[in-house]
Amino acid sequence: MKLNKEEIGRRYARALFEYAGEERQYEPILEELLQLEQVYQQIPDLKNIFSDARLSVLKKQKLVDLMQQNVSPIMQRFLQLLFDYQRLDILPEVVTAYQHRFDQMTKTYHAVITSAVELDDQQVTRLQAALATRLGANQVLVETKVDPEIVGGIITQIGDQIVDGSIRTRLQHLNQVLLNN
């Protein structure tokens, strides 16, 4: 059975996370992974370059050498490992999986809050505190979005859970109830 990129990324992330834990380097490694992910975002073809059979191993190694500059010895070895096993194309999946493990360990949640109008800092802070209490979280990182079509209220998304407290949804439910009677 062939594994998909996400599963392979999770396996490499787990190994890196465990090693980072042994070295007490969870957060510095996460920061380096996020920086490398930015490189992948700035150069979208980088994934393809590493999986392209037309490019020589020496040229690919030169790219890896450039990526290894200004990172810790742990990350240098990890990048070399990914290169040696021809897995550098899954680095974004590794970053996602590592971030997830780190968030679980630190009880950090990421929330997307959609409202009809822009929320001020005080409102966001109160929502963060309420969510942290409800989730038993140490930290809730909030991203806000504005969608005037929800009319009022908020929609909160944490992971794959969505709590829809929008007026638009309440009006739709009321409409369905009235039409069914």
UniProtKB/TrEMBL annotation:
One of its GO terms (molecular function) is proton-transporting ATP synthase activity, rotational mechanism. It is found in: Cell membrane; Membrane. Keywords: ATP synthesis, Cell membrane, CF(1), Hydrogen ion transport, Ion transport, Membrane, Transport. Gene3D superfamilies: N-terminal domain of the delta subunit of the F1F0-ATP synthase (1.10.520.20). One of its GO terms (cellular component) is proton-transporting ATP synthase complex. The keyword Oxidoreductase does not apply. It is a peripheral membrane protein. Belongs to the ATPase delta chain family. NCBIfam families: ATP_synt_delta, PRK05758.2-2. This protein is part of the stalk that links CF(0) to CF(1). It either transmits conformational changes from CF(0) to CF(1) or is implicated in proton conduction. F(1)F(0) ATP synthase produces ATP from ADP in the presence of a proton or sodium gradient. F-type ATPases consist of two structural domains, F(1) containing the extramembraneous catalytic core and F(0) containing the membrane proton channel, linked together by a central stalk and a peripheral stalk. During catalysis, ATP synthesis in the catalytic domain of F(1) is coupled via a rotary mechanism of the central stalk subunits to proton translocation. PANTHER family: ATP SYNTHASE DELTA CHAIN. This is ATP synthase subunit delta. It comes from Bombilactobacillus mellifer.
